[in-house]
Amino acid sequence: MGKNNINQNLYKEIEKLGAKDMELCMQCGNCSAACPLSTGTNSFPRKIYRYLQLGLEDKLLESPEPWLCYYCGDCNIDCPRGAEPAETMMAARRFLTTKFDFTGLAHKFYTSPKWEVGAFFVVAFSIILLFLFGHGPVITDRVALNSFAPAHYVHIGDQIMFAILGILLITNGFRMYLKIMKGTKIPILTYITQAPIFLLHYLTQKRWRKCGTGPSSRWMRHFLLFSGYVVMEVLVIGFLEVFQTDIIHPFWHPTRIFGYYATIVLMLISGNMLYSRLYLKEEKLHRYSDFTDLFFLILLFAIAFTGILVHFFRISGFPIATYTMYTIHVAICVGMLCIMLPFGKLSHLFYRPLAIFLTTLKEKALKESQVDFQTITKDVNENFMGCMQCGTCSGVCPWNQVSYFSPRQIIRNISLNTCDDFNVDKACWKCVTCNSCTEHCPRGIEIIDIIKSVRQQNVEKNKLPKHLNNPIKSLKINGNPWNGKKQDRINWNKSIPEFNKNNEYYLFTCCTIAHDTSVLKNSQKAGNALIKLLKHSKVSFGTLGSQENCCGEHSNVMGVKHIFSDLSKQNTDMFLNNNVKKILTFSPHCMNSFKKSYKKLANSVKIEHYVELLETLIKKGTIKPVNKIDLKVTFHDPCYLGRHNGIYNAPRNILKAIPKLELVEMYNNKTTSLCCGGGSSGPWEKFSINESFGVLRIKQAIETGSNIIATACPYCMKMLNDAVIELKLQDKIKVKDVAELVLESQENYHV
Q1: Do the Cβ atoms of 404 and 440 come closer than 8 Å?
Q2: Beta carbons within 8 Å of 466's beta carbon, 6+ residues apart
Q3: Strand order in 606-609's β-sheet?
Q4: What is the 3-state secondary structure (H, E, C) of 557-575?
Q5: What's the CA gap between 644 and 149, in Å, rounded?
Q6: Phi and psi, residue 439, nearest 5°
Q7: Three-class SS of residue 623?
Q8: 290 alpha-carbon distance from chain centroid
Q9: What number is the average pLDDT over the span 444-473?
Q10: In what order do the strands lie in the sheet with 708-711?
Q11: Are 98 and 115 in contact (CB under 8 A)?
Q12: How far apart are alpha carbons 403 and 55 in whole angstroms?
């Protein structure tokens, strides 16, 4: 996963560039459904709205979708909240133009009309001054334009100007290429074979013909305007010395025919578009027009109009008027091109076909998905086909607080059979199985089960991510994911009694405690605290130590079915053969696995997490928290204790029983608790500080003013402690298990 910075001002920046009513978007997806160009692979505008709402600037920069929109306005009509997706997509394109431009001028021109107009007049007046002091002989008895402005020198000037502007535009385009193609490897031959796509879309804008339900005349108008612009540039760059001549050619001469075509088309179409934006203002679009759009059309009209005047004065035999108007005409042309081509409206003629070209390359690079629709329906039934694409799952996913992840999009691609290696197969490994999506789904879809099915199919095709090879191998060989020796499972506390049939509880040791890989051994400290409490309370318990295997929860959610089957069978046999009636777990992951995935234990063995037992012991008075802990404490709800199993009050009741301890809540708590990132493959992934749930959670704890963040899960202990170290806050906040705090408060206990 790449780094994704959160830009809290992104929303406001896009708003300044012309976006309207972004706060109205409820992520219903009507806009994407209405857009005929939105596909399963490149869907918009909803995805772009989501990036803006979450401040995901990096994701926006890597998105070709804003350039794939042709501003037809259908999305505006179909939005149930009256938002303006078309305007937002337009504003997003302006934003991207400012970001790809390394000079910073595009940002100034788009955000300040004064800067844009001022820059235009600076360039235009520079050209006027150049002609004023550098013109050739002024012949007044006849029109001798090539004497006043020798075509050869003007041609050289044009070529130098276009070379500079071309370098600027290509440089900006390369920056766009680096963003969109980030992490994508394409063979050189593919670039060559797909190159015609760029030219095709540059010259025809053929995708626009599929766009919208409005009249096709919009595409025709744009095509005519573009063709007029291209014809004019070809005449100026390639044939200026033939086009600009003192000889008045007959009407049917190619230079006059093409010149008239370009001039008339530019003037009529730009005038028509100005009228549409200023007066017509169709229901679907042009209700709002940014200054730069109007200024661009005004300049195009002015170029065409002054060009006609130059020609009129020339054939009428007015030399001074011809020279004067020619100077003004060239000044407007150069000013418009210098401002609009690399930094403004004209740049979209390059960026859009480039985005289509790069999108095509990425599609060519996609590998075939390993996912079979029938297998998923067999694993999870067809309930997921009832997904109404509301986006609630994506909205509540914790990834969207630090990066981007869309369960909705995964389900959509599966439903439409548009899965590929990137949008489903690889994407599914990002899920940390926190269960927030399932708990909030209005249709009750078991989204984690879908993720598991996708993963399982990939595992069966040997597509397990590389960073999971070692933990899975260790599970197979050692019975734990931490490369610990099986015979050492009980070494962390050899005082735990051996289980016998007279014991009330079988204490199941979590692998993360038994084989704690951290330097400070915080998970083992928590485990030792619980052992002392159980012994003090005279709870009858024991363990079989080295006979245990991992509960298999992580291999289960990773889709490594055969490993989980082996582990669960061995553990089930051990429990039943030893007449175990109650299992007490350190880890909520173990509890969840035994309760929901060990079918043979369902009716014969009771499963408890230790906080449930401690709460009972405190209520009975068996455990008496009497030592004061005069500290502010906040509790982090482990996902597998809370959302997966509904245990929210027990740990809080325990903490409230400790004298002087002040329990405060973080912003995300109980059902909305933020995952620590330790579910699924999280403990074996390396996250940047900007993508760490643990870091975000510690920051939330700091905001409460707490001295301690308490939890009741070994994986949470690991992830939160790693975050404290990452943030270098060891002197400001501590991570402690609930059992540790109870032990410190227990009578006859001295810190």
Answers
A1: no
A2: none
A3: 541-542, 505-508, 582-585, 606-609
A4: HCCCHHHHHHHHHHHHHHH
A5: 80
A6: -65, -30
A7: coil
A8: 27
A9: 94
A10: 662-664, 632-635, 708-711, 734-737
A11: no
A12: 9
- DSSP class of residue 645? T
CATH code for the part of the protein at 1-100:
1.10.1060.10
Q: What is the rounded distance in angstroms from the CA atom of residue 621 to the CA atom of residue 629?
A: 19
Name the token pair of 716: 């949470």
> Are 463 and 425 spatial neighbours (Cβ–Cβ below 8 Å)?
yes
Phi then psi for 711, rounded to 5 degrees? -155, -175
Cα–Cα distance between 333 and 356 in angstroms, integer? 29
As a whole number of angstroms, the distance between CA 588 and CA 654 comes to 17
Kind plus residue range of the DSSP H or E element containing 10: helix 10-16
**The CATH number of domain 468-616, selected from 3.40.50, 1.10.10, 1.20.950, 3.30.420:** 3.40.50
- Burial grade of 639 (CB within 10 A; 0-12, 13-18, 19 or more): buried
Phi and psi angles of residue 736, each rounded to the nearest 5 degrees, phi first: -135, 150
Pair of tokens at residue 19:
């976006």
Residues in the chain: 751
- Considering only CA atoms, give the Rg of the chain: 34
pLDDT digits (tens, 9 = 90+) for 111-122: 999 999 999 999
Show the tokens assigned to 239: 């044939």
Model confidence, pTM? 0.73
Cα 572 to Cα 602: distance, rounded to the nearest angstrom: 11
Among the listed ranges 55-69, 285-299, 561-575, which one has the minimum average pLDDT value? 285-299
Which residues have a Cβ under 8 Å from the Cβ of 599 and sit 6 or more positions away?
none
CA dist., res. 46 & res. 343, Å (int):
27
Amino acid in position 688: S
524 pLDDT above the threshold of 90: yes
Q: Which segments of the chain belong to CATH 1.10.1060.10? A: 1-100, 368-462
The count of other CB atoms within 10 Å of the CB of residue 354 is 22
State the pLDDT confidence band at 516, using cuts at 50, 70 and 90: very high
Structural contact between residues 249 and 260, judged by C-beta atoms closer than 8 angstroms: no
Q: What are phi and psi of 607, to 5 degrees?
A: -110, 130
Alpha helix ranges (H) inside 628-692: 649-656
707 burial via Cβ count (<10 Å: 0-12, 13-18, 19+): middle
Q: Which of 66-80, 103-117, 181-195, 266-280 has the highest mean pLDDT?
A: 103-117
Between strands 708-711 and 734-737, the pairing is: parallel
Q: Where in the chain is the domain with CATH 3.40.50.10700?
A: 623-745
CATH T-level fold of 623-745: Rossmann fold (3.40.50)
Contact 71, 89 (CB under 8 A): yes
Tell the CATH topology of 368-462. Fumarate Reductase Iron-sulfur Protein; Chain B, domain 2 (1.10.1060)
